[in-house]
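Dear V.,

Thank you for sending over the compound details. I've combined the ligand you provided, zinc ion, with the protein sequence from our construct and run the structure prediction for the complex. I'm sharing the raw inputs here so there's no ambiguity about protonation or stereochemistry in the SMILES, which I know was a concern on your side last time.
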Amino acid sequence: MSNSKHASTVGPDRPISLTAPTGIDRAAHHRLDEAWLAAAWSHPTTRVFVVSGGQVLIDDRPDGTTELVMTPAFEAPVTETHRYFLGTDAEGVSYFALQKDTLPGRMDQSARPAGLREAGLLLSDRDAGLMVHAVALENWQRLHRFCSRCGERTVIAAAGHIRRCQACGAEHYPRTDPAVIMLVTDDQDRALLGRQVHWPEGRFSTLAGFVEPGESIEQSVAREVFEEAGVTVGEVDYIASQPWPFPSSLMLGFFARATSSEINVDGEEIHEARWFSREDLTAGFESGEVLPPYGISIASRLIELWYGKPLPKPGDVV
Ligand SMILES: [Zn+2]
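Below is the predicted structure of the protein with zinc ion bound, written out as structure tokens.
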């Protein structure tokens, strides 16, 4: 598997959302070092933000950028919270997230709560990376309060990266569930796009699904495409991955080559699927018959790589 064929078209000016380097060293070797963590926490340069229910506070700056709202540790609301150590940057600044039941109130009027689907489009790569790490940990913590071996309660350890069972001693680690998302093309270089049953008329995107137990990702791509659209695929090329903590997935993005063309949708997940040439898609956007996919999902970027130019955003005049 190689992404070299397509890497040149994902330049630094258009990185795939949530996949760009963040500049943060996760520094996992510090997670069990309580003395180091205590010193890092009390250091004046340390920055802290609160995560609650998948949301953080963001701040839209006058210059048009949006920042994750962070404070020094001594200003952070530390009561009844879980503390996650997220890493350090090149200047030695340490970053922590505090998980709380609610987001703190802010004197700063411009700060507002946002989830990852919104903030991921607005934040810098560093801030988006910190947020997605914290949200993924929060989701995992929330769903793993009890030991899957003996059923007793687990407690947080390793600065948020382990849950330990106090009854049987089992250590539980954050899990990541692989999912595949693929742009399928045929021998005329048309793209197979589908509309999920709950999507509005005209909204099309790539096919996707979860990897099943005992299955390779190549097998998963082929199975999902056949189940959802009745199309068989052969060659599969890996393009890029994306953390997708809704609640705990990792999206693995592929280009896949179809070996059949007749479409037969399952009607359960996919209501409608079509082969689109680039001209079909442009005409669809222009007439309004096709709605451009938009959001943090890697789906938009996979389609753009094939389309050869940015997709219009909702409301854009094509
Ligand atoms: Zn246990």
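A first observation: Residues 147, 149-150, 152, 165, 167-168, 170 surround zinc ion (CB under 6 Å).

Warm regards,
I. M.
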